[in-house]
Amino acid sequence: MRYRLAWLLLFAAPVAHADELVIYRCTDAAGALTVQNMPCPKGSKQQIKRMQALATVPMTPTPAMSTQPAAAPTEPASTPATPATPTATSASSAPAADTAARLPPPNLFRCTTRDGGGYVTEDSEPASRCEPLQTTGLDGNPQGGAGQACEVVHDTCARVPDEGLCEAWTKLRDEAEVAWRFTRAETSEKNKAEFDRVQRILAESTCGG
Length: 209
Description:
Blueprint: E1 20-27, E2 33-36, E3 45-52, H1 89-100, E4 109-112, E5 118-121, E6 129-133, E7 149-153, E8 156-159, H2 165-181, H3 185-204
Antiparallel strand pairs: 1-2, 1-3, 4-5, 4-8, 6-7
Helix pairs in contact: 2-3
C-alpha cells in the first residue's frame, strides 16, 4: 500500500510549533484502504481524522563534568599564588565536536499535484500515476459506459532549500508516525519500519543536534 506523505506549511513555524494534520482514510469499491492527505476520489468511502502534529523540541546537551582532580594545598609563599582559572575547554568542545561530525540530512523534494495538493518525497521524479476517467455510453449516459479509462499524471517537484530540510524531515517523521499508528494491523509493521528509518535519519543528522 502506498502512502502519500503530505507537506504542510514548509516555511511557516519553527520545528517546535504543532500544526494540525488532516488524514483522509479512503475505501474504494473493492474494499482497498488508502491513507492520504487529500480528499478521497469520487466513488470512495471517506473518513476524516484531524490531529495535532507532534511538536519536537531540540534537546539541550548537558555539559560534560570536569574530571580534573582538585589541586593539592600548597605551602604559604611570600608571593600570593595566582588563582587557577577553571578550564571549560573539554566541556564546551564536546558538543561542538559532536555537531561537527554530523552531516546534513538527505535532500527532499516538494511536489505539487494537479489539483493543488502537495506532499514531500525523497524522489526527485516521483512515479507517474493514472487517474481514472469517467466513461459514458454512445448516448452520453454515464451509467451505460463500457470499459475503464485513466489519464497519466506527472506531479511537479522542486528541491527543498537547505534551510528548510530539518523542518521538512521533521514533518515527514510526524506523518510517518501517523501512518503507522492509524492504519490496519497488517500494515503496521511496515509503517513502523518506515517511521524508525526517518527517525534515525533525523537523529543522526545535524537536525538531531
